[in-house]
Amino acid sequence: MNKVINESEDHFFSSKKSISDIKGTFFVGITQLAVILIIAILFVILGIIIYQGRSKFSWEFISSFPTNGMTEGGIFPALIGTFILVIVMSIAAVPFGTITALYLTEYASENSKFAAAVRFSVRTLAVVPSIIFGLFGLGFFIQFLGAGADTAFNGGELRWGQPNILWASLTMSLLTLPVIIVSVEEALKTIPRELREASLALGATKWQTIKNVVLPGSVSGIMTGTILAVSRGAGEVAPILFTGAAYYLATLPGSLSDQFMNLGYHIYIMSTQSSDVEKTMPIQFATTLVLLILTLSLNVVAVLIRSRIRRNAK
Amino acid sequence: MNTQMPIKQTFTEESLKKQFRLSEFLAEKIISSVAFLSIAIIFLIFIFVFKESLPLFSFGSDAKAKTEINATTEAKPETYGAEPTEELKPESYGAEPTEELKPESYGDTPKEDLKPETYGSEPVSQEDLKPEAYGDTPKEDLTVASADETMDAVSENQEGADKTWSTFFTTEWVPVSENPRFGLLALLFGTLKVTIIAMLIAGPLAVLAALYTSCFASKRVKEIIKPIIEMLAAFPSVVIGFFALMVLATFFQDVFGYESRLNAFIGGVAMALAAIPIIYTISEDALAAVPKTYTEASLALGASKWQTAFFVVLPAATPGIFAALLLGVGRVFGETMIALMATGNAALSSLNPFESVRTFAATIGSEMAETVFGDTHYSVLFFIGSLLFIFSFALNAVAEFYVKGKLLKKFQGK
């Protein structure tokens, strides 16, 4: 009797297992396929852009002005414009972001409602569509601050109340703020509690501890945040559409109240509003390649620094 | 006891009191007020985006006088050097009510709008004779003519307010014409269509990939896959849009053989690429946060690895995955550059996924540069902006509070 039951049970289990095995391979296969598909798409995009852009991609392309109604020549002013944009943006966003992160990790208590509100607004900033930042830049920086400053100081003469590189950079700094805050916060959290306690026990005040112990320890975190923010800021176009990016400029921007050319905006303009889209195709792909190299390499650097911070924390 | 006595005496109540140090006090105050700024920014964004759309809400004649004062003072710095000496030309608003005009325009509107290949430039051809301004508007505005135009627009704005509202719930988006119509429904329809297509592609792909990463992949494979997929987030949206415009559009047209090269489907595919890293990262975090005891209990009961993954881990992480999908929707809904470059930008409302559409964000992006400050069109675009802001704010709030609360409860076994 016993034996029979065992046999039938065995049989039962084994048959079920084989069905389950087939199902199992199927389901695991699907998930595997999803991963492979995503990675394949990524490399296809990269591959096509590199393949199409490589013929035009050269030092001369990077270092010369566009000529002949933007159908020939290089992207030098767009590249410089992008650099100025991210530099001014970092100058505004990095201190602001670092201090907010300091507040969240060092000063805010666990159950503080205020800190929760700050966290919530930072996360909201991260999900607000980038075009809204553009509208805000136009409504607040240009129409309100800029035009206000013009009436107050310039006697109504138009200087700041129009799109320019300063307003574009400030708009962009709001967009990249969450990136910096999150990175710095993460880095601050990896600094061991013992270090802070040792400093406090030696009689240092809270601010002295932050200044001499916490901040030096989080330099690499601030760097990661800055690099990620720069990578993001270099690629975003929507916020600068109406806050300062220009279609074509014959000269480089000389002051903060000038407009500027931008790599991403250049791609957008060239591919949608160029007089001869077919002819400028290699230029467009090469410009995209330059932008992609810029953002991807910055990202890789940030990821490497971050993984080093994590390893040190362990 | 004896040895402790002298020490005890040195700590008087006075000395134990926290000393007031100015630098400490200042540092704390400055740091928390800077932190407060990020809350302030959120409010400022809403206030200033919404403020520009306020003229739309001034109904009737009571508000008229007030608007006039506001409008003229606000318009002043916008005249760019040219003094607004010109008299206010009373505009002919088209005496006919909008309802009468509508049946007439059914015939010709599609013709105006059916230009899927305009690549984000204005879809309306009626008043396009004026020089086009791509972002460098101020140069255009330096002319006297535009100052004149501003005044016209302002005066039109006052009486146009309630007329504008009546056109909001129609499906015609013809902002630049003798009789402008702002049918937000057409844009809403287009935005939803693209969002649905994008989420149908990105949602399953990203969640399944996250499931593989957190449940099946070995540690080494995981360390390779994760950064690569997250690398997709570093692709600027203008690059994805460009890729869709140049490569995907041609490729899919060859495969499916539909008519308009740029359409909702292409836009959806491209936006899926933008949404995948967000959905992937957040749902991977949610899956990894499922307590190990769940997995171990399931495995101990004899379930296989895939059964555990699909019937234990995945259901346990549902709230987190839901949050991931919500944030993905938020990203697609507000995506501008991809919509501008890949969707064709014609406000058609048909169910066919291979027709051109126009989304909210793309409308703002492509038309803002051509509007005049204070114009109804300008206000409507800002109004769309505040709608988008409210929507993304609400999505984030839901993802944050509702989902997190649920997740916590679940893991605490309540």
TrEMBL record, chain A:
It holds the Pfam family BPD_transp_1. GO terms for cellular component: plasma membrane. GO terms for biological process: phosphate ion transmembrane transport. It is found in: Cell membrane. Its main location: membrane. GO terms for molecular function: phosphate transmembrane transporter activity. Keywords: Cell membrane, Membrane, Transmembrane, Transmembrane helix, Transport. It is a multi-pass membrane protein. PROSITE patterns: ABC_TM1 (PS50928). Belongs to the binding-protein-dependent transport system permease family. CysTW subfamily. This is Phosphate transport system permease protein PstA. It comes from Flavobacterium laiguense. The gene is pstA.
